[in-house]
Every structure is written in C-alpha cells, then in structure tokens.
Amino acid sequence: MKEHARTDRIGAELRRELAEVLRHEVGDPRLRLITLQEVRVSRDLAHAKVYFTCLSGDEGSVEQACLLNGKLLGFLRRALARRARLRTIPQLRFVHDESIARGEHLSHLIKSAMAMEDREDDEPQR
Fold first, then answer.
1. Is residue 59 part of a domain?
2. Would 45 be classed as within a structural domain?
3. Are residues 49 and 13 in contact, defined by beta-carbon separation less than 8 angstroms?
4. pLDDT tens digits, residue range 47-99?
5. CA 93 → CA 3, 20, 60, 87, distances in Å?
6. 0.70 exceeded by the pTM?
7. Which of 39, 53, 59, 111 qualifies as a cystine partner to 11, CB 3.0-4.6 A?
C-alpha cells in the first residue's frame, strides 16, 4: 500500500513540475492550450505515462503527442532533473487523454435517449 502512495506522490510532483516547464520554458505555441491530467509512474519508477488534453478539442492532439514524445522529450527530462527532487527521472511517454471527449459523447447519447423516451411518453396510446 505504501508503494502505491509513493508512486502517486511522485506522479503528482512530476505533473506539477512538467506543467511549470511547459508553461514557462517551452515557447512552442502548439503547446499553449495543453493541460496535463495525470502522470502515472510505474512501481519501479523507471517509466511514467503523462496524460494530457487540449482546450481546443481533439484537433492537433496527434501533432502535440508527436512533438512531446519527439523533439521535446529530452528537454523536458533535463528540465525535470533540475527541478524535481528525484534521484532518477523516469522515461516519459505522453498520451492524449480521450476520457473527457468520451464522457461528453456518452452524455450526449444519454440526453438523446432520454429525449426520445420523453417523446414516446407524450404520444397518445392507441
């Protein structure tokens, strides 16, 4: 149980520090509307998945993931090494988090199903 709490704390610290680095040290305009949702660190602290979303929707998310996992990956790890209080910095992997879009889609489906049910209730019975 303690191991799980430790990885959660480390993930939260990495998320805070990465957000600061992206906000203040990375000047790429394609990453201005990015929000870091969560960082999941493996139990051995060797790998971390960074889940992000975009305020502008899903457009450009593939390009942003390629940019974060490509050209900027080394820069971000070095910046984390300077800021984070960890002996080693995990290998980072950025993944676009589609849970918000999926939730909105499910919410829309539920609303449309309820509207259809209301219309059926309003029709006179034969």
1. yes
2. yes
3. no
4. 999 999 887 665 667 788 888 898 899 999 999 999 888 888 999 999 988 87
5. 21, 18, 17, 19
6. yes
7. 39
